[in-house]
Amino acid sequence: MFSRVAKPSVSLCSHFVKNFSTSNVANRNVAVMGASGGIGQPLSLLLKNSPLITQLSLYDIVHTPGVAADLSHIESKSKVTGFVGPDQLEASLKGAEVVVIPAGVPRKPGMTRDDLFNTNASIVANLTAACAKVCPKAMVCIISNPVNSTVPIAVEMYKKINADPSRIFGVTTLDIVRANTFIAELKGLDPATVNCPVIGGHAGITIIPLISQCTPSVQFPEDQLKALTERIQDAGTEVVKAKAGAGSATLSMAYAGARFAFSMIRAMNGEKVVECAYVRSQITDATYFSTPLVLGPNGISQNLGMGSLSPYESKLVENAIAELKGSIKKGEDFVANM
């Protein structure tokens, strides 16, 4: 699928090599909401290292001045500023062109992404309300779980003040990163050369890897395909269990979030870039759905849709729709009842 327009960037190393060999790159202002957290700190480190970014604004309710001071010692050109507490929220967003939101509480053993809803829903609603007011044209990249519900929350917050919600993206990139890695492990490939689109949503059975569309082309016996699909769907829980109560997938999520942010900036700079993301969609009966998107200077240039699915993948989509609809409604109802 990706080869129809452009392949997504598959590693941050390739981003850095390309970035450092490019002169006259556009200046970009990026804000990270939740920059002191388990995802926010490594994400901010990766963003600080990119020459694509000239201004990095870090916001959280605690510790951001220290995080900003620490990062400011790194020998890259971006200027880092820390903002702390609700009184400084709007200031942290002034001039932002890309806003990345990893803010929220992490999953613990036994918790689902949906268990995070009540806490993280309020956080995302407050942050995106500020985005709609201060930087309504910024690209907003939402990592905070449950993404299947927090993205609809963000859109509804924008609609409340008649702001344009078309630049709001749910970051599902970690599902693609995991699919590429797990496929490469099974086939003895370099993960950086594997591209497997993952569609649907960002939780459990809504995560739908399109292994039939993977490049390079790969095939698996039915039992191995099922096991691989389920591992991709449950990979977040795999990390939560391995950390034994100490956190969730923070480092790999930071990597994936940085990859998506870099792709967004490159698209804003005029490159043709394809990434999967969870957005408002008319592709299925679910009003939000992740598919490969051609990104451009104004957000989504083209939605590439699902492409040709195998019978197994078609069944996965069919099974995911009801859960997606429920998660979307939960997010929309939250804003309606605020």
TrEMBL record:
The active site is at residue 202. GO terms for biological process: malate metabolic process; tricarboxylic acid cycle. Keywords: NAD, Oxidoreductase, Tricarboxylic acid cycle. SUPFAM superfamilies: LDH C-terminal domain-like, NAD(P)-binding Rossmann-fold domains. GO terms for molecular function: L-malate dehydrogenase (NAD+) activity. It comes from the Eukaryota. NAD(+) binds at residues 34-40, 60, 120, 143-145, 253. Homodimer. This is Malate dehydrogenase. The lineage of its organism: Eukaryota, Metazoa, Ecdysozoa, Arthropoda, Crustacea.
